Each structure stands twice: as structure tokens, then as C-alpha cells.
Amino acid sequence: MQISAILDRVPRFLRSFYFFTTVGFLLWMFVFDSNDLLKQYDMYAKWRELQAEKEYYLKNIETVKKDRAELLSSPELLEKFAREKYIMKRPGEDVFILVPQEAN
User: Fold this and answer.
1) What is the mean pLDDT of the chain?
2) Most CB atoms within 10 A, among 15, 42, 70, 71?
């Protein structure tokens, strides 16, 4: 008798087969499915991270292309680049590298 009184207080559409089926389907899709909301969010975050990396690398490619064009245009610039970047030297030269001290 108490159960029927409680069921009478619940609206009729909440007791229908279609409501339970819809809730079950949504629960399955959002929680138990292999492509649930958490995985979708993780994939979206990874996609955003990869997009940022793509932008970074595209900018670096442009910088490297510009440096390459400058280096190939002049042997003096090529020598300067090799000496500064890769610490190369001519035969018979001594190279001294000055490293600034770190403040304690």
C-alpha cells in the first residue's frame, strides 16, 4: 500500500518504458561506452596540445629556412655561424669559451 502511494506521486512520464530506455542509453553513452565523455575530453585536450606543437614547429621551420638562405648566400656568414654555433676553429687557432658566473 505504501509503494502504490509513492508511485502515484511520481509523474506518469517518469514511469514509462521510453523514459527508462532513454536514461539507460544516455548513461551507457556518457559513462560506460568506449568513447565516453572523459575520453572525449582527453582526446580534445591532446588535440589542442598537438595543434600548439604544430604552430611551434611551423614557426621554427620558417626561422630555419630563413637562416639557411642567409648562410648559403655568403661564405663569411657560414663561417661566422659555424664558429659561433658549433665552436669550430681554423687549424692552429685556440678557442676560449667564456661562461658567466652564476650569482649565489
Assistant:
1) 86
2) 71
| Amino acid at the residue 103 | A
Grid cell in block for residue 76: 663569411
Domain borders along the chain are: 1-33, 34-89
Predicted local confidence at residue 1, as pLDDT: 59
Q: How far apart are CA 44 and CA 36, in angstroms?
A: 12
Please report, in angstroms and rounded to a whole number, the separation of the first and last CA atoms in the chain: 82
CB 36 within 8 Å of CB 44:
no
Residues in Cβ contact with 83 at an 8 Å cutoff, skipping those fewer than 6 apart: 89
Report the b/e string of 22-54 with b at 16+ CB within 10 A: eeeeeeeeeeeeeeeeeeeeeeeeeeeeeeeee
In single-letter form, the type of residue at position 67 comes to: D
